[in-house]
Amino acid sequence: MRTDAELIQAARTDAEAFAELYARHARSISGWFTARTPTRLAGELTAETFAQAALSLRRFRDDRDGSAAPWLYGIARNVLRRSLERERVEDAARRRLGLPLHSYEAELDAVEERVGAEQLRPALEAALAELPDGQREAIELRIVRALAYDEVASSLGCSEVAARIRVTRALTTLSRLLKGVAP
Q1: pTM exceeds cut of 0.70
Q2: How confident is the model at residue 62 (pLDDT cuts 50, 70, 90)?
Q3: How far is 81 from 84, CA to CA, in rounded Å?
Q4: Predicted confidence (pLDDT) per residue in 126-140, tens digit
Q5: CATH among 1.10.1740.10, 1.10.10.10, 1.20.140.10, 3.90.550.10 for 4-97
Q6: Would residue 98 be called left, alpha or beta, if left means φ above 0 and alpha means ψ between -120 and 50 degrees?
Q7: What is the largest CA-CA distance in the chain?
Q8: What DSSP state is assigned to residue 62?
Q9: How far is the C-alpha of 124 from the C-alpha of 82, rounded, in Å?
Q10: Which has the closest alpha carbon to 178: 117, 94, 110, 106?
């Protein structure tokens, strides 16, 4: 098995050698980034680290008996530092311009929730159709229309305690139906 230093030497003319170096170190570099940044950025920063490494093959110095780890972690530190500095500068510019600092992460989560809900919709509609009328109405009032329990009770013509029991039973039955367990 070739050392990292030998792979780097070969990678100057052989893409397969660089691919082997990547395979050896990508997981640990990604883990290093994951410990320091949001998970969604770790892959991007890992890719940037290896892109920089590919551009810097001629500058590699074997300081660790053939291991490229110190060199790669040095590149990773620089990539992280530049990324954080770029983010700081962009945030400062947005503030000076009076633009809102906007995170798309919450929007991505909302999109994923909607996609998941849309996939669940047919099963949910079928399960709701199987509920007794009183339970279905209780869920509609409490969950869909987001009414308080006193309003649910008033609409159902029962006590607040009875409304709570009806909603709880309905949710339990609905959960069982969605899991494929007979009520």
Answers
A1: no
A2: confident
A3: 5
A4: 888 999 998 999 989
A5: 1.10.1740.10
A6: left
A7: 81
A8: -
A9: 47
A10: 117
